[in-house]
Structure to design on (84 residues):
């Protein structure tokens, strides 16, 4: 399984109302230093079954989103997400 496939599988399994950091997703996918690659993979994802909005920065800030940061914030707020 490619790194990209691992990332998408991990993100797909983040439960509603929870988040993971880009760094944690990279670590779970097997390369803890590839957090920028995680961001690039998620930025290019258009599959609505992959909840990319549940991946945030390690410092707790929301970070980027391919549909805009405001939309990401709205989705996280709607889910009452726990920011970790």
């Amino acid at each position: 399984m490619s790194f990209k496939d691992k990332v998408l599988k991990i993100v797909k399994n983040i439960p509603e109302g929870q988040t993971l950091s880009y760094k944690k997703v990279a670590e779970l996918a097997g390369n803890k230093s590839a957090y920028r690659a995680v961001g690039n993979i998620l930025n290019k994802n258009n599959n609505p079954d992959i909840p990319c909005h549940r991946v945030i920065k390690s410092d707790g800030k929301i970070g980027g989103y391919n549909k805009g940061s405001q939309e990401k914030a709205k989705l996280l707020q709607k889910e009452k997400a726990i920011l970790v």
Notes: The chain has a mean pLDDT of 93. The radius of gyration is 11 Å.
